[in-house]
Write a structure and sequence with these properties.
By secondary structure, this protein is α+β, with helices and mostly antiparallel strands. It contains 20 helices and 15 strands. The protein folds into 3 domains: 171 residues, no CATH class; 170 residues, no CATH class; 192 residues, no CATH class. 48% of the residues lie in helices and 16% in strands. The termini are far apart.
Length: 601
Amino acid sequence: MATESTHPTPLPAAAPAAPHALLRPETLRMAVSFGVPVVLVLLFLVWPYQQWDYGKRESILIGWARWVGTKADWQFCLLVPALVGWLVWLRRDDLHKLPWQGDWAGLLPLGLGLFVYWVGYKADTGYPGFLAVQLVLAGMILLVAGRGWMRALFFSWLFLLFTWPMQPLEDSVASPLRPRTAAMATSLLNMIGVPSVNEGSALQSAPDTGRGLQVGDAFSLDVDAKCSGINSLFALMMIAALLGYLALKRPRWRFLLFVCAVPLAVAGNVVRLLLLVAGTLMFGSDFAVGRHIGEHQEMSPYHTFAGFAVFGVALAGMFALCWLLEGREMKKNLQRRVKSVSSGTTFSIPLPRRTLAQLSAAVVLPLAALGICARTDIGFHVSIPGVKLKSDGLQPALPLSLGDYQGREYEMTAQEKNLLDEGVRLSRNVYASSTGRQIMATVILSGFEKRSLHRPEVCLPNQGWTVTDRTPIPLRLEDGREITVMMMRIFRDVEPRPGVRIRTRALNFYWYIGSNGTTCPEHYEHVFLSYYDSVFRNIQHRWAMASIYVPLPEQRVGQEDPIIELSAMEDSRAFIAQLAPAFMLKNQDLATGSNPPASAP
């Protein structure tokens, strides 16, 4: 008789529960592919961010494309987004192997980027918007996809920096390059038997008494910004970064190649100057350089051809350096970067719930930032200038009589009008005392353009001056106010006859005057205060800059008398203490919004 088994029959294993539709990898991938681009388009392509041309506000990318498209020196920036897309495409198989493991640490760059976005929106300036693009992209990659994706895309993300025109660097980079480029070309010309001299950014032929030639009779070139290396420098740095990434394997060699783009750009421009000198000596200035039509310089075809020497020399130097660093490995590195290997690895999201939460944060936070921007007051109401104006209300006022000094007014020259931005106003007096001391005082009132006041450190080297040092000097004015001014010692040398060098020295004092009584001695400090006060204090400055120029007696090089400089410094301090209250508005005038005209002398 059969007996029943005491062992229970095992139940079939339960099937795993199907994930919620929102948590399926395919659904999350579609949500990211749709949600993140929509947010980025709203932030950077749709939202009216800045008044690029002092008209209606336009988005960051539209304003950027419009501005860059009109600046031939920066049109290479338009190629960078396409290059970044190509770099990402090269890593497509590596990215396909990586799972999406978002990191909440991405909230830090995302939040910082959105804050910078709001600052630029409130201050009506585009550069914080450019920085916001970088930070927001980094934050979203890290927050949604994770650190592995950020490492894989790091160079592409960093390369995107070349998209943004770094025009503010022109003042700080181009100006030092101009006299140095001229000096290097002068040395090479003298070495090959072409007597040359340079003064500041001017490159001229040396005098030849035997042939009756004066300075500059054979050739005379001015190394303007186009010949200084700045226009080609950033494009060459972009090429160096891309070439180093593709052709070199070691990070230190890539960095070395990137740094060498600067001297290679300068070397290319020196070769360009040598070609222009050779063309001028053989065929004349009109052929080599071009003709002056009024105040316009018409560039000759030979001049245009010589410009290609910059890229020819620099690119040849870059490839030669790559070969020296890694030799035959360079070709293998290029093949390794460009060749794509199919992986067959399937796309995965290990933690779908966390990924959904991180995606939600990546979408909601930018939308919230746009809501804050919509409620931000962006009205632009320029405050009254911090200096007294003449009765016509257009130019700053300077007294014609000041103690022992008697002044004479000098109008703005036609050349200065062309150099200064629209709306800039200038008042300038030259003062002389009974002791023989001469001082030139200039007050420049900014115009409608942002940052329309240029640094003296930029203008003076272009005029042949060498700045030896800069020193902030605290001063107590006669009305009790205390300010700090910047003092520069400057000089330039001339050689009236062979073997005799005469040095002309001078002191130059300057400071910036804001609309609310603020003063500062530094250019970049006044730029920072402009944006800081407009964002956090609702003060829209109309800045003025005061400049006091004090010439010193000419002396032979090596025989300068330091007592003369000390005496001029003390006279200048006393003069500024008298002059500044005469044209700087007092706090009570600023508080009431009045701008009393200057009293008659």
